[in-house]
Specification:
The complex is a heterodimer of chains A (about 160) and B (about 350).
Chain A: H1 2-31, E1 56-59, E2 66-67, H2 74-78, E3 84-92, E4 99-109, H3 118-122, E5 128-131, E6 145-147, E7 154-155
Parallel strand pairs in A: 2-7
Antiparallel strand pairs in A: 1-5, 3-4, 4-6
Chain B: H1 8-17, H2 20-57, H3 73-83, H4 94-112, H5 129-150, H6 154-185, H7 190-195, H8 202-205, H9 207-224, H10 236-239, H11 249-274, H12 293-313, H13 321-349
The chains are: A alpha+beta (about 160), B mainly alpha (about 350).
């Protein structure tokens, strides 16, 4: 008869479920090892965001304060919100005598950015990168307009774009 | 009926102050106030426990910010609810709408008066104790039903109707389990029931049929206290909040607290019927004179049973209404009936285990 085998089957499957959840409970109750909650303001100093986290767009600088931006303005043209502004100047290359662009200011309007990442994907010289900082709150939107190239920085020598 | 042997000093002091009749009334009022206090504290503690336990089941931490290990979190929540506005609907039946939460609270309090916290702390020890709890707790349905009806809201009404079906069905199982256990015990008085378990708890004395009765009691008890997987009354995904959709502020908090106090009452009945009430396991603390040791053992056992109910809640998915009725009428009821006969046979043939 399926009546009794149903009861036994049902009890068994319920106990299987309870064993699984019970395992979770006692493991977390005793060791707190698998707890995935981040206690945010307490771990502010040690908190490290994962690599793919989209906090803000940054211009990468190496240890000699050199970046890889040749001011081609592809990022500025790609950005759907117009949150990037590349201000450049031209100078005459002494070797070849041709006009070339040099980056003056890479301006980033964080308040307009949707973190879509198109600028980073499209950059021909891989100059832009994701930054992991997310403490962006401020009382003044003027503070959200950032200059990405550090003062006194130069282009990496021999950059081919 | 009122026994207060540990509080004899207060008792005698009161009687020395004023005439006997007024002292008696004052005592009744004091006990009622104490039970209201226990009601509130117990409700808040159980809500906190539920949230903590739920956290660990779901790989979270649960409330741990307000006070040590989050103990004051529920008090903060209750204060918030007290300060909130009591909203209501224009077309509600206002008298019944207002009365419904008090029905639920009153029945929960009446059932709580019979709970033996320890040998001394036991307010109302009548000779039909378990029967009284079973009948009083079925009056609690009226409160939920009134809330569903008087709200004049479709969701509330469906929630109330479902309660009617569910409570009446599973009340039967609880009653039958109580009959099974009283067949073994031969008494309904709670203090006697516990006294008889000095020679082994009923779950050991009655071995096989008692264990089966305990399993049925746990299932029916979950349904009685309207908890997952039997929470069709307030099934969030279908009915909003069910019968208390239209309630806010403190009126909502009454429902919420009463739900958890009912959980405590069901667990206490389980402890009294199967696990020896406030008796120590194997009498290990019988010779020692530690104050409130009965309260400690009773609390420990009740917490263990409540934990099992919470374990159910965070494991099982919700029933459909026809599955709910199938489980009761096609499975639990026939098993229960056979179980009573088996238990009666065991008692008749003397097959019970006694130390």
């Amino acid at each position: 008869m399926s009546y009794f085998s149903d009861i036994i089957q049902g009890t068994k499957s319920l106990l299987t479920g309870m064993r699984i959840t019970g395992n979770y409970f006692f493991k977390n109750f005793l060791t707190r090892k698998d707890v995935i909650t981040q206690q945010y303001p307490d771990n502010k100093d040690t908190l490290k965001m994962f690599d793919r986290f989209r906090g803000e767009v940054t211009l990468a600088h190496n240890e000699n304060n050199e970046h890889r931006c040749d001011a081609c303005t592809t990022c500025e043209k790609t950005c759907p919100n117009g949150s990037l502004e590349v201000i450049w100047d031209k100078y005459k290359d002494p070797e070849t005598g041709r006009n070339k662009r040099v980056l003056v200011k890479h301006i980033y309007h964080l308040e307009m950015c949707t973190m879509c990442g198109l600028c980073i994907e499209v950059c021909p010289t891989n100059a832009l990168e994701w930054g992991q900082d997310f403490h962006h709150a401020s009382y003044d939107r003027g503070q959200l307009t950032k200059v990405l190239n550090k003062p006194g920085s130069k282009v990496v020598a021999g950059l081919k774009g | 009926m009122i026994r207060l042997s540990i509080f004899t000093q207060i008792h005698e002091w009161l009687y020395s102050l004023m005439p006997a009749s007024s002292a008696h009334i004052l005592e009744l009022v004091l006990i009622a106030a104490a039970y209201l206090g226990i009601f509130a504290i117990l409700g808040l503690l159980l809500v906190w426990l539920e949230r903590r336990v739920a956290g660990f089941f779901q790989l979270r931490l649960g409330p741990n910010r307000v006070g040590p290990i989050g103990l004051f979190q529920t008090i903060a929540d209750a204060l918030k609810l007290v300060s909130k506005e009591l909203t209501g609907t224009v077309k509600a039946d206002h008298f019944l709408y207002g009365a419904a939460p008090y029905f639920i609270i009153t029945t929960a309090l009446m059932a709580m008066a019979l709970i033996p916290f320890s040998q001394e702390i036991h307010a109302f020890d009548i000779n039909i104790g378990v029967f009284f709890i079973a009948s009083v707790s079925s009056v609690g349905v009226v409160g939920i039903f009134l809330a569903g009806w008087a709200s004049n809201n479709k969701y509330s009404l469906i929630g109330g109707m479902r309660t009617g079906i569910q409570m009446i069905s599973y009340e039967l199982s609880i009653g039958m389990v109580i009959v099974t256990m009283t067949t073994l015990a031969g008494t309904l008085q709670i203090s006697e029931l516990i006294e008889m378990q000095r020679n082994g708890w009923f779950i050991i004395q009655g071995h096989f049929p008692a264990i089966l009765a305990f399993m049925i009691f746990m299932i029916a008890g979950t349904a009685e206290s309207n908890r997952v997987p039997f929470d069709l009354v307030e099934a969030e995904s279908e009915l909003g909040a069910g019968f208390h959709t239209e309630y806010s502020g403190m009126n909502f908090a009454y429902f919420f607290l009463a739900e958890f106090v009912n959980l405590f009452i069901i667990s206490s009945i389980a402890v009294v019927l199967f696990f020896g009430g406030w008796l120590a396991p194997f009498g290990i603390t019988d010779g020692l004179h530690i104050p409130f040791i009965g309260l400690f053992w009773f609390g420990l056992k009740v917490t263990a049973i409540i934990f099992i109910f919470m374990w159910f809640r965070w494991t099982f998915p919700r029933f459909r209404i026809d599955q709910l009725l199938t489980l009761e009428w096609k499975y639990l009821l026939p098993i229960n009936m056979v179980n009573i006969v088996v238990m009666a046979l065991m008692v008749w043939l003397g097959l019970i285990i006694k130390f």
